[in-house]
Amino acid sequence: MARQLYGGRWRVDKPLGQGGQGVVFLVTDLTAEESTPVVLKRILNPRRAERFVAEVTACKTLTHPNIIRLLDHSALDGSGEEKMYLVMPHMDAGNLEERAAMYRGSVDSTLEVALKLAEALGHAHSKGVIHRDVKPANILFAERNNEPTLADFGICLIRDEPRTTETGEVVGPRAFMAPELEGGGRLEATPAADVYSLGKVIYFMLAGGTVLPRERQAEAKYDIFTGKGLRHELVPPCQRACDTFPPEV
């Protein structure tokens, strides 16, 4: 049986997983232009076409070593017989959600990852792109190192572009979402929303996978800073200092 082919170029080798909005395949580039492993994400829900366009637009706008590269995509206007799809490098070392135990109590490794993510977000914000979905599952790794890749710009907000979410619709990572976005509020999110989510990600890493409920790090159950030395105690103030960076778009 012939394997499915997308764009006359991308041959499906095997499925890697499926979520509510799409399915991901490991594919081979028949042109051999891309020699390293790549994946194709096919959008299953045709009602999410606006988010597909937003993700393509954002990835084409952004060029940063810690932001996912877009290698190819289907037609934006829905023309052609093929489903909407994106092609990206294969991040085969897992996501941060899966790797959380690696960072438990490790300030150096955690801040190494966090700094690169902050730089990636700073680049996005400077280009008028607010991610709005910063969470461990969207932080990918190609190798077993501390070089993160920020992915999944499907619900991003792009300056001067039409909004891709309905008024009142709750968007963003629920456990990592900035307070102003809860309940569908402030869909015109500022960069501060991404910075807040990054602070939650920092805690998630240091705690080895524990999600911090709203600002409760001082409670005994969630306090991973007290009694572990000055370097740990400096992390919460560092998170608060990030509230002023980057400037609003």
Question: Which short descriptors sum up this protein?
Answer:
Phosphorylase Kinase, domain 1; 6-stranded antiparallel beta sheet; 249 residues; alpha+beta; 2 domains; Transferase(Phosphotransferase), domain 1
Strand portion, in percent?
Answer: 15-25%
- Number-wise, the strands total 10
Largest beta sheet: strand ordering = 1-2-3-4-6-5
Helix content: 25-40%
Low-confidence regions: 243-249
Average pLDDT score? 85
Count the DSSP helices: 6
Helix/strand-derived category reads: alpha+beta
Looking at the structure, the CATH topology of the largest domain is Transferase(Phosphotransferase), domain 1
Q: Could you give me the name of the CATH homologous superfamily of the largest domain? A: Transferase(Phosphotransferase) domain 1
The CATH class name of the largest domain reads: Mainly Alpha
Succession of helices and strands: EEEEHEEHHEEEEHHH
Can you tell me the CATH architecture of the largest domain? Orthogonal Bundle
Number of domains: 2
Radius of gyration: 19 Å
End-to-end Cα distance, whole Å, is 51 Å
